[in-house]
Design a protein that fits this description.
With 687 residues, the protein is mostly beta strands. Helix content is 4%, strand content 46%. The strands form 11 sheets. Strands 1, 3, 4, 47, 50, 51 and 53 form a 7-stranded antiparallel beta sheet that branches. It is flat and about 110 Å long.
């Protein structure tokens, strides 16, 4: 008897989403539909991690649970906090299953047989020790971990105030957030802490003129006073900003002072000890921030000390400011409208943008903006949308100055030899979309996401955009962009839009490995930052319209909500588009980070109604396996496979097949679908 020949074909999943190539020409492994999957560096598509609200309190994804058995003598309900009478241990009840109680927020160690109270009233007796975890199945373990995370989540508050988050940044391993106050009358700055968000208190400033002779400058830490008749006025100098001139002759600047005793008025003499140093040209005024704007930041060090890195802040509605972790110092440039929109440190100069003007400080002195000391201006003719230093070449390192219409490259080592070249192509980049990744820069142009190298070589053409295969989608998103970030550990560029969606551009070196769409639902990413902590860990935080700061790429959910994710690889015809095939089995190579449930289905013949299509099948996976001596304790699953293989029986005869891989749960860990093995029997040619 001649048995039918069963053929086997394996194809990797790679290349990202392709909406533009005719279906018959799309390479195997690419997707024709996708959401909330990202391209992996080494190949495959990975369901993205989640995000969770943040304030410095214990993160939801770090929450744990315990199980304990209790014999009731009264009543214990979900939400109650039980206390061991003997041990004084406490725990919050998250779930009840028979005599087993799931506890979160456990403090202390319960005894195996002790009375437990609820609100000081005995309600039962423990009949076991409290066990960390202890769920009877992997599925229950995932459910209980989500309950523990949600319980922690409820304790994390939004940044106080009103309106959307204006900016978020990491400086000195501390997360800072900017939001308008509750009345919408001023902008506030907060920092994270173990107790949640803490407001940063701004100091006081006073403007001065130095015209009375002498050569000694003000010194930080000195006490100033009035040394005259009337009420005593004193303060300690926090910072001295000499903008123009020379101290003792024609110096003009600002003193940042705190604490202040009394009230310094305009025209008051300013003494240090018995020596008059200057005359006040304004009254001492509390430093405030105006509402609105979108913040941009840079951390920079303008001295030789390793401990003098500062944070610089602009937002288009306030003066540029310097912050050292304690003192908030507005910087006056002398502009009539002194509200720069973009900031960068380059060659030991501080650069600021004012519409089409790029202005830079004196060398090594971000407080000084006088031409005499080396400050200056570079005109671009178009509205500047950002600055980014570029990798060094034979001419040394340079800086890109992006505008709404053109791209400029600034060469040189100082104001003495600046040389700016302009792209021969009219290519403008959108503000807040430019990011350095590896040796290249990526950003959004009118043709889609482009690299700076591609822009310089090919200009403003659709084919030059790395998003050319999803150009129809990019057309719909034009004008909706809000911000962007780059992940060095994942080798990704991410772009976000004001409808809650975004794009993940996967990169392998300077090569694009795929572009995939993401969708955060009602949570809009308004501002974002990615930083590497002193521990070497990369972190990403973003601010949204609801006033929360979220930590991204962490946890199993969208702040407790499900992550609805799917991929639909291209219809595969196995290199014979007109040959009918009897499909028999598919095997999926999956790398799971932990427990997850995945629904898999398939369509035949481009989904024709003339053929019965595949039914959805749920597959359970328990990832996190490891090799002996090659894992970290508590970060792997005992007896779990290193790579999962999931088999799916197929029924039907058609010319091609496509699979749908779907996940829609808040408790499921991320997983990567690396490839598919397809088994089929060739039949006849389509007539």
């Amino acid at each position: 008897m001649n048995m039918p020949v069963v053929k086997h074909e394996f194809f990797e999943l790679k290349g990202g989403l392709d909406l533009m190539t005719p279906p018959i020409g799309v390479p195997n492994g690419k997707c024709i539909d996708a959401q909330n999957f990202e391209p992996e560096i080494a190949g495959g598509y990975r369901r993205i991690d989640g995000f969770e609200r943040y304030s410095g309190l214990t993160s939801p994804s770090a929450a744990t649970y315990y199980t304990i058995t209790i014999t009731l003598t009264g009543a214990i309900a979900v939400g109650d906090t039980i206390t061991g009478v003997t041990s004084a241990a406490t725990g919050k009840v998250l779930a009840v299953s028979g005599t087993t109680y799931v506890l979160g927020r456990v403090s202390g160690t319960f005894n195996a047989s002790e009375t437990v109270n609820v609100s000081a009233s005995p309600q039962g007796t423990t009949t076991s020790l409290a066990a960390l975890g202890g769920a009877s199945t992997a599925s229950l373990d995932a459910d209980y971990l989500l309950l523990a995370a949600n319980d922690r989540r409820a304790s994390i508050a939004a940044v106080p105030g009103s309106g959307r988050i204006r900016g978020v940044w990491v400086y000195g391993d501390t997360v800072y957030a900017f939001r308008d106050n509750a009345g919408g009358t001023a902008g506030d700055m907060y920092k994270d802490s173990g107790a949640g968000w803490v407001k940063v208190t701004f100091g006081t400033e006073i403007q001065f003129s130095s015209t009375m002779g002498g050569t000694t400058a003000f010194a930080v830490g000195s006490t100033i006073g009035n040394l005259g008749a009337g009420p005593t006025k004193t303060a300690t100098i926090v910072a001295v900003l000499l903008r123009t001139g020379t101290m003792g002759t024609d110096g003009v600047g600002t003193l940042i002072i705190t604490p202040v005793t009394g009230s310094f008025a305009n025209a008051d003499p300013i003494f240090v000890g018995a020596t008059q140093k200057a005359v006040a040209t304004t009254a001492a005024t509390a430093i405030t921030r105006a509402v609105g704007g979108q913040c941009e930041f840079v951390n920079a060090n303008f001295t030789g000390s390793t401990s003098t890195q500062k944070m610089y802040i602009v937002d288009g509605v306030n003066k540029c400011a310097e912050f050292d972790g304690t003192n908030y110092i507005p910087i006056r440039t002398g502009m009539t409208t002194d509200t720069p929109s973009h900031v960068m440190a380059h060659k030991n100069y501080l650069f600021l943008s004012f519409l089409g003007s790029a202005q830079y400080s004196s060398l090594g002195n971000p407080y000084s903006w006088t031409v005499v000391l080396g400050a200056g201006e570079i005109a671009t003719g178009d509205t500047i949308t950002g600055f980014l230093p570029q990798p060094a070449d034979s001419s040394g390192s340079s800086m890109a100055i992006f505008t709404s219409k053109r791209t400029h490259i600034l060469y040189g080592t100082s104001s003495a030899d600046w040389r700016m070249t302009t792209s021969v192509y009219d290519v403008g980049y959108s503000a807040f979309t430019m990011q350095p990744v590896g040796n290249n820069t990526y950003g959004l142009t009118s043709s889609g996401v482009q690299s700076l190298a591609t822009t310089q070589n090919y200009g403003n053409f659709a084919y030059a955009a790395i998003t050319n295969q999803i150009q129809s989608l990019m057309t719909l998103k034009r004008g909706l962009e809000t911000c962007s970030t780059a992940s060095r550990t994942k080798d990704q560029y991410r772009l976000y839009f004001n409808d809650g969606t975004g794009l993940v551009v996967g990169l392998t070196g300077d090569s694009v490995s795929g572009v995939m769409p993401i969708n955060y639902g009602s949570t809009v990413v308004r501002c974002i930052c990615t930083a590497t902590l002193t521990t070497g860990v990369e972190v990403t935080y973003f601010g949204s319209d609801d006033g929360y700061i979220y930590k991204e790429q962490v946890g199993t959910s969208f702040d407790g909500a499900v992550i609805e994710a799917w991929i639909r690889p291209v219809f595969n015809h196995s290199r014979s588009p007109q040959m009918r095939k009897r499909y028999r089995r598919a095997v999926f190579e999956v790398d799971a980070a932990g427990y997850c449930q995945v629904q898999i289905s398939y369509d035949l013949g481009y989904g024709t109604i003339a053929t019965n299509q595949g039914l959805q099948t749920t597959k359970e996976m328990i990832g996190g396996g490891g090799y002996w001596d090659q894992f970290t304790w508590d970060q792997f699953t005992w007896d779990a496979q290193v790579i999962e293989t999931q088999s799916l029986s197929l029924e039907g005869t058609e010319k091609n097949i496509s699979f749908i891989i779907y996940n829609n749960r808040a408790q499921d860990h991320s997983f990567t679908v690396q490839g598919i093995s397809l088994m089929f029997t060739p039949r006849r040619m389509e007539r």
